[in-house]
Every structure is written in structure tokens, then in C-alpha cells.
Amino acid sequence: MAEITLKDIIKEENLVYKRSKIMTNKTLSYCPGCGHGTAHQIIAHTIQDMGIQEQTIGVSPVGCSVLMYDFLDLDIQQAAHGRAPAVATAIKRLMPDKFVFTYQGDGDLAAIGTAETIHACNRGENITIVFINNGIYGMTGGQMAPTTLAGMPTSTSPYGRDTSMMGNPLKITELLAMLPGTYYVTRQAVHTPRAVRQTKKAIRKAFENQKLNRGVSFVEIVSNCNSGWKLPPVKANEWMVENMFPFYPLGDMKVDGELVNK
Amino acid sequence: MEKELRLMKGNEAVAEAAIRSGADAYFGYPITPQSEVLEHLMLEKPHERTGMVVLQAESEVSAINMVYGAAGCGRMVMTSSSSPGISLKQEGISYIAGAELPCLILNVVRGGPGLGTIQPAQSDYFQSTKGGGHGDYRLIVLAPASVQEMYDFVELGFNLAFKYRNPVMIQSDGIIGQMMEKLEIGPQKQRRSAEEIAKQCPWATVGKPENRERNIITSLDLVSARQEQHNHKLQAKYKEIQEKEVRYELINCDDAEYIIVSYGSSARLSMKAMDILRAKGVKVGILRLITLFPYPTKIIQELTPKVKGFLAVEMSCGQMVEDLRLAVEFKKPVEHFGRVGGMVPSPEEIVEALEQKIIGG
Amino acid sequence: MAKIRGAVVVDVEACKGCSVCVVACPSQVLDLAKEVNGKGYNYSYMKNPEACIGCENCAIVCPDGVITVYKVKVA
Predict the structure, then answer these.
(1) Residue A25 lies in a domain
(2) Neighbours, chain B (3 or more CB pairs < 8 A)
(3) What pLDDT is stored for residue A3 in this prediction?
(4) What is the domain-level CATH number for residue A201?
(5) Is this prediction's ipTM beyond 0.95?
(6) Residue A20: inside a domain, yes or no?
(7) What is the pLDDT of residues B45-54, one digit of tens each?
(8) Is A2 an interface residue toward C (CB < 8 Å)?
(9) CA distance B334 to B339
């Protein structure tokens, strides 16, 4: 048997994975190892797999992912800070046959945009919300977020989040699962291949659900902020597993409109 | 076709005009004295009449961002509020202006500052005409003085908004919004089809087909040189608007020695004051502003050499009068008269102000 | 017995050297290069290509989508 060479393997007919064509050629503006990029790739692959590029409108937030429209080859509106669910509400109401999603960070969705988030979910808008929770304001340089863990240092809680003074980390996803307007609520991650595969299933379900017109599909992705946490990427992921996951446990909270009993 | 006459409140007229002009959506939040807009829309079931989307948002902030979303899809969309609510919308309006989206915003002005009063005022002139939110931008501002104009300016406003891809504001006040008058209403227009919208608004985010670049609605550009270019482009647009879209009404100005410059309810009150003064033999005319931005500087400059003075009458402590002074360039006396805090000037007070501040001054 | 052989191609200039792919690989195929790319990142490369099974793990965790995966069955 002749020895097989790399040249024999690397051929078009042997291709099993490549970057989605829904991703543009622009270099992502995210830091090395940032989960935002992974989440983008998953969304792009999902839209490609479903063949819905022409039917999809995205809404980007303010924060690190404000430039999402540079990276995803889709029609996208960039919303004011926290207002993406209101923007998406209007888009979907006017074009009910389209797939509409927002992509928001924790400061955007769970602090300044709390009202828009809760009311869009409570109205049962037939949209998909992808929520990246890394417990920090990344874009502005690592300030305390609504989801910052108790005791976690940030640039505006340099001695750690003192909950007696600064309030408690907000489990907004648990809160949203309680609302009758949410149809699917889940918390996922993108730090390992297994987590990515799970998240991809969740995002797919969250988009497919829009065909049912049953309300909001909400996917939280607990993610890293290497720069904000001041850790190298792999270490940041380990820190996330040890510290973030106990407080923000992964898994489905609501499926097909029914709360999941844990 | 026979005219269809109705007796309606100004606020209701706006709602009816929105449906009949083929608007796609309205997003609002209750606030006195303009809640009849949303109330009338809900009563009229526009979702059944034309398929128009009407939604009560959780706040003015949310409502204006819904307007952003709908406008970004090329839809004919409007919102309405009153002064404190309009203040809340300013962030969204700035984004809409920056992203160059067409939309219509009605402000039924009440007295301020702060929660102020629910009674009528015109003290939002600066906010309407100088931008309102952050950054260098302008709205096209229409000032109705009757229920008929409340109705008519909806379609006019939408047309201007789409012509210039710019937010248009109807700056009304609590009197015009609340009073009932006879008005003539137009026929029901068809809403545009999705195909017509895509053709009219090739920039709209309606889903990216293979054969075109993706459409992006944003006001962000982190490259300063490009952001500066964008600002220059906006300014060129505002200049064009100033050249082409000035609207006003001249009343008895041909022989006038004194001119009252006013708009909205104040202009109506000034009409009575003009009658009283004319009966006394004082030659008074009125320049009624229909557009607050663009301001009718040119006609004021034409009138300036022919008259002895101007009186700005507005329900504010003196806002529009600043633009009047800039137009007159101190060549003739310019004074201001107004009542504020929800107080409405009487024609007699306007007469007295003109006699004391201009004629006797 | 059929054996699976895989290979990955890293877009060297787009790689940011985060090494998330390196730890995601079940066969210890990948490592960061001693050399840097145009942006100064130690990019990911196949240090041990014979061990690659084309499982895609490295590619799907890559935030920047710089890894393409190929796979063949070898008789």
C-alpha cells in the first residue's frame, strides 16, 4: 500500500468543513480566542444550512459586536445601545415571513436594554435573540456588567464586585424563561467542540422556531472575554468553566413553550 | 369625486391621515395631549383596513427604535408623542438622521421644562429645528395651524421624508392636537407592495439576494475621514432642503408696515390681533411659518427693507425669534412676545405687545 | 481495516494564534508555530499531521473560521 500524502487528502472532494460563505472575508475585529467569533461562525453556518440568506435580517447591538454587519453577509441593521429587540420587533411585524434575529451582549441586553428585552419577550415577538454573556463590558475596556459575578474584578469594580454596594449579577435568562412570550430559552457555550455542536443545534432550533410563530427563541451563550478578564484564551475558557458555569449553568430552560424541570 | 368632510380632533386627523396615506406602521406610547393618535388608530383597526401595523410600545424609547427598524426596511412609519416623550426619543431620532432613514414624528407640544404641564406650548422649537439629539443633523419641521393641516402634513411629511431620506417632524401643539374642526379627507391610498418598496428603497434591509451587496443600516463609521464625508453629505442635503422646501404663508403683507412672524396656534391668535390692529389703522401683516426648518430667511430678507419692525409671537420664552433676528440682521427692530407654561396669549395681549414693543419702541 | 486520515489547512495570515484549536484536537495534531504571521501571531499548524482524523473539532471552535478540514478513508 502506497503511503498517502497530504496532497492526496487536501482535495475538494475530501472537504468536510470550511468557513461558511455567509461569513465575509473581513478579519473579525474580536480579540484572539473570543467566543463572539465562534458564535458568528455558528450563525453563519446555520443560515447557510437553512438556505435563508435572502430571508434573514439581523440586528447588531452596541458593544464588541457592533460591527457584526462587516462579518455576516446579510442585510443588517445596527441598533442603538440596548434597543435591538425593539428594532427587531418592527422588522418582524412588517415582514412576518422573514427570519429576524438580534445579537446582543450582556451590557446591551441585560442593562441598558432590559426594558426592550423583557417587553419583546413578553409580547412574544416571533424573533431569535442570541445573547453573549461574558460578564463584562468588553468594547469599553472591561467595566462591570449586569452579569459580572460576585467578587469578580473589573475596571469599575477593581476590588471585585461587592454585591452589597454594586448589586447582584442578573440571571436575566432565567427571568425571561418565566415569561409566557418566550417559546425556547436555553443557555449554551462555545469553548469546546462539544459545546459548539450543542450551540449549533440550539441556534438552528431558535431559527426554525420562527416558522411556528410561537414567540421568542432565546439562546444565551456564556462566553469569554480574554482581554477584559486579563487571561490568555485557553486559560480564560478554563476560568469560565470554573467560575461562570456554576452561576450560569448550561442547558435548556424552556423548550417548545414548556419550562424544563431540573 | 365628492369631498368627504369630517369633524375631528387634530390628533385623530393625523391618525386617519396615516391610514389613508398608506402608511405601513405606527409605534407609540401614551402621553397627554396626543394619546388620541394611538387611540384612534386602535379604534379604526388599520390592521384590517390596510394591513398597517400599529403597536403600543413599552416606552417612547422603544417606539422610536421600532420606527428605526421599520424605516430601515423602507416602510412608511410614524410615531407621535408630546414634549417629554419627544425628549426620550431624541437618541433614536439622532440615529435615524445619521442612518438617513425616512420617517414621520409628530410632537404635540406641551409646556416644559421637565414634566412641565399638559397644556399647550411651542417651547420645543430649538429641539425640533436645531437637531434635538447629539451630532450635526436637522429634521424637516412642519408646523400645522389647523386640523386640516394636521391631516395634510402627514402625507406631505412622508413624501418629504422619502424624497430626502430624512426624518420629518410635525411640530404641533396642544391646541391644534385637541381642537375639533371640519376637515376634508382624502381617498384611501394603497400601501406599497414589497416589490414597490424594494424598488423605491434599494437600500432597505429586506433580505439579501445573491445578486446584490448586503444592505446595512447604521450611523456608525469608525473611520474619521469617512464619517466626516458622511457629515458633509448630510449638510449638503440640509442645504438643498433649505433651498427647495421652504413653506410659508403671507397674510396682508403687501402694504404692511409691521409684520408678525408666527406659526401654529400662535399664528391663528395673531390673525385676530391683526384684525384689531388693522381696524385701528395699523398696517400689520403676518408671516406664518409652515416649515420651521427650513426657516424662510429669504422672504424675511425681502420684507425687511419694506417694514418698520417684526414681532415674533410664539408660546415660548423666545426661541423662534432668534432665527428671525438672524434673518433680519439687526436692520429693523425685532421683538418677541409669548406666554409660556401652558398659558395661551390673547389677541389683545399680542396687540399690546406690538404697540408697546415695536410701534412705541 | 479502513482507516480515517484527515488534514487541515490553516489560513495562516488570518490566524490569531489563540490556540483554542490546539487544545480542542483529540489527537494532538496541532500546535502554534515558532514563526509568526504578518500580524505577529504564532499561527496554528499541523505539527503531527499523520495523527489527524479530520474530526473538525479544531475548525468548529476556531473563532476566526481559518481552518478548513479534509478527510479520506484509507483502505
Answers:
(1) no
(2) A
(3) 80
(4) 3.40.50.970
(5) yes
(6) no
(7) 999 999 999 9
(8) no
(9) 17
